[in-house]
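Protocol step 6 of 9: fold each sequence in the batch and record its C-alpha cells directly after the sequence line. For illustration, a two-sequence batch is reproduced in full.

Sequence one:
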Amino acid sequence: MPLALGEIAERLRRSTVQVLLPGANAGGSGVISSADGAIVTNAHVARGGHASVHLWDGRELPAKLLARDPRRDLATLKVEASGLPAAAFGDSSALRVGELVMAIGNPMGFIGALTTGVIHALGNLPGFGAQSWVLADVRLAPGNSGGPLADAHGRVIGINTMIVHGLGAAVPGNAVTAFLRRGAAGFSLGVTVQAVRLEDRRIGLVVLKVEPGSPAAAAPLWVGDVLTSAGGRPFRSVDDLHQALSDAGGLIRLQFLRGDRASTREVAIRLPHPVAEAA
C-alpha cells in the first residue's frame, strides 16, 4: 500500500537537519546523505570549518566541513554518529514541469516546516551562468537553504538554495550526488570575482576579494584587478574561470587589467594540489 503524503513527509523530516554556525544568529538546513553522518547543505550555509547540527531526535552534534564548492553552492559536513536516517536521492533528469514536490527546512526558527508546490521550470537561469536549476513554486524563507526538495515519493531531487522571482531555486539532485561522489576536489585560485562588461563590450571578472595565503595572493592579484582571459581565451562568464582552473593542470596563465586599464598584463600562477574548496 502506498505511503500517505504525511508519512512520506515525516520520513523526510527525519533526514533533514538544522545547521548553525558558531556565533551566528541565523542558520540553514541540511540533508543526511549517509547513515554514518555525512550531511549535504549549501556552501553559503557552511561558511566556516565547523558547525553545529541539530538532528530530528533532539541531539545537537558538532560537525566539521569535509568539502565545499561555492561554484555549485554545495558543501558536505560530517558528524560523529551512526545509524542516521539517510535520505534517498532521485533522478532529477526525469523531472517534468507540473510535477508535485515538497520542501522541508527550518525557516525563521520553525523546525521541520513543510511546503508543497509543483515544478515550474528546469534549466539555467539568466545571470547565473550555465548551471542547471530546479525552479518550483514552493514557499521558501531564510533557514530553508540547504534543505531538501523532494518528489511525491520522498526522494530528494534538489537542494533548496535561493528564491528567484518568487520561485524556489534548487541545485538538481544529480548535481548533488555527483558532488558527493567527487568531494568537490579541484584547483583553487583563492579569489571572489564578479562579471562586469568592459568599455569594448568584452566581459571581465573584477576581483572583489583575495584570500590571504592563496595562489592569487602570491601572484600577486589585487582587489580591483579585472581578469579578461585565461591562456588567451576570453571570459564570457564566471563559469569560464572555473573551467579554466579545471583544465589548468597546475599552472594557469591569466590576462588582466589593473589601474587605468590601458594595457593588459599577464601572470602565470602555479596552483597547489587539488583541495576540497573549489575556486
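Sequence two, same batch, same settings:
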Amino acid sequence: MINLPIVCIIDDAAPCINTYWWHAAESQNTDKPYHQTGEPVLQRIPLSFLKEFVDVTLKWGIKGKFSVLPYPAGLGSIADGLPGYPKSEVDEWVKIVRQELTPFFDITPEILTHAKALDLSTMTLLPENERNWATHQTEATLTPYIAYALQILKDVGLDANGVTSPWDFGRPVEADYQRAILNAQKSVNNRSNTWYFLHTNDKDTQFHSKVVYPAEPERNNEWVVSIVSQCGDFLWQTMETFEADDAYVCSIADRYLTDDGKRGRLAELFDATIPIVFHTHWQSLFSNGRKTGLLALAEVGKRVKRIWGDKVRWTTCYELAKEIASTVKG
C-alpha cells in the first residue's frame, strides 16, 4: 500500500503582527500599504485566528512546519514582548503554539526579523534587509545570527529543529549557510541533525529534498537536509480579492486537489509516488481578515483525508528529513 508522507509548510507567522504589512509598507514606500483591491493591509492578525488555525489542523490531521519569527519586523525579541502590543497577548500566542501546535508542527525561526538585518554587536537594525545582508556573509558571521534566532525561540520554550529562510536568504552562500545552520543547532540545542527550507520547485515531479551536508553523513552521524516545497502557494491570491464564497474557496482547493482526486498539483505529486511537500504563508491563510485561505486549506485537508485516507501520512519536516537521511546512510 502507498503510504506517502505529506507536509504542510507555514511561513511568516509571528505573534500579533501581520508580517506582510511591513513588507508591503517597504515595497510601496508608505506607512499605509494597500492590496490590489485598494483596501488597506491589516497590520494585526488577532490571537483568535491562531486558535482557528489550530482547530483546522487538528480536525484534518494536518502536520508540517510553522515559522515563528523571533524578532519580527525588527520590533524586538518575542521573549521580551513587542512594542505596541500587550505582552500578555504575545505570551498567550506563544503558549498556544508551544502547547497545541508543537505536537504536530516543527517550529523554525524564519531567521530573525524577516525585515532589516540586525547588527548583533549594537542591536540596531542595518539599512539592508536580511536577504541582501546574507549575500555577503560567511559561515563565521551566519552562525551567531542563526544561533540568536534559535536562542530566542528556546527562551520562550520552542525547540526549533530546523530553520526557514526569509525570501531566498542564504542562496548565494548556501554552502556556508548549511554549515552555519548545523553550527548554530549544535551550540544552542546540542543537535547534530537539522534541516532548512529555502528552495521550491513546482515544475516537475522529481523529488528534490535531499541531504546536502556533509557529503557522507554516515561518517559522524551529522546531517543537514534541504526540504524543498514542490507546490506553489495558491492561497496567496486570496489576499488580493474580495471573493470568499464557497465556489471560490473550492476553486482554490482544486488547484491543490480536485474533489474527485484526479487533478491538482498534490495529485501530480501523489501519482508520481513522491513525498508531497507544499507551502503557504500566514498572511495567505488570513486573507486580510476574510480567512479565505484558511477555509481553502481546510477543504484541502478534508479532500486529502476522504480521497487518499491511509495512502498518505501527514508528517513534519524533521520526520521527513530523518527518513531522507536514513536512506543515504542505508
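Proceed to step 7 once all outputs are recorded. Observation for sequence two: Residues 105 and 189 are 18 Å apart (CA to CA).
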